Amino acid sequence: MTVYRLLPLFPLPNVLLLPETKLPLHVFEPRYQAMLSDALSGDRLIGIQLLNPAARPDGAGRPAVFEIGCAGEIVEHEALEDGRSNILLRGTFRYRIAGERETPALYRVAEVTPLTVQPLPSAAPMGRTRRDLRRLLAKSVERLADSVGRSQARSLPSQLSDEGFVNEALIRLGLDAEEGYRVLVMDRLEQRYDWALEHIAGVQKRLDFLEPFRRSGIDPRWN
To answer: Quick check: 61 and 77 in contact, CB under 8 A?
Structure first.
């Protein structure tokens, strides 16, 4: 049986949240101040929803959004004097929008279906195991962090789940919205790890190519 739950939506352009990663936001519009207030007095969950600029607005004139999003739990909240707020969200679960619900609220509310992920293979006689993929990703992130002079970003937290581990690695790359959504919709963690490893390898290859041409003392991130 399909399980639905109601979730307030925070539609945003070029902003994405992945499970077990964190996202700071500044809340200032009255409708989202109301949404934040309701969330804080309830389960503290907000659905971060990427706007779909290629699609038409719905019948009510609301901007179109992609069908898959990520619920974020409010883990920090700073109320400002003028009613605005700074919040920090932690991604909890992916979901698919089943349909939007008409409510008296100023903000959008949707029925959503939580999405599961297919775990990494624990044993793969002809391929890579879960341990292999985590080790490869950790090494790739370490090398890339050294190449761009960000030693503080070398280590991925080992306590993260397999999904959180790859998501944290990808967030550190500063993915654009299109790339991030491509990752968000992947149901197989093995596919997500393969994509991350290929993406990081591409960035590393460009950095290695440029290395001989850099003048000493110039931050490679500005090339």
So the answer is: no
Residues of the chain with CATH 2.30.130.40: 5-115
CATH number of 5-115: 2.30.130.40
Q: Kindly give the confidence (pLDDT) of every residue in the chain, 223 residues in length, as a single tens digit, with 9 standing for 90 and above.
A: 677 899 999 999 999 999 999 999 999 999 999 999 999 999 999 999 999 999 999 888 899 999 999 999 999 999 998 899 999 999 999 999 999 999 999 999 999 999 999 999 887 666 789 999 999 999 999 999 888 888 778 889 999 999 999 999 999 888 888 999 999 999 999 999 999 999 999 989 988 887 776 655 555 444 4
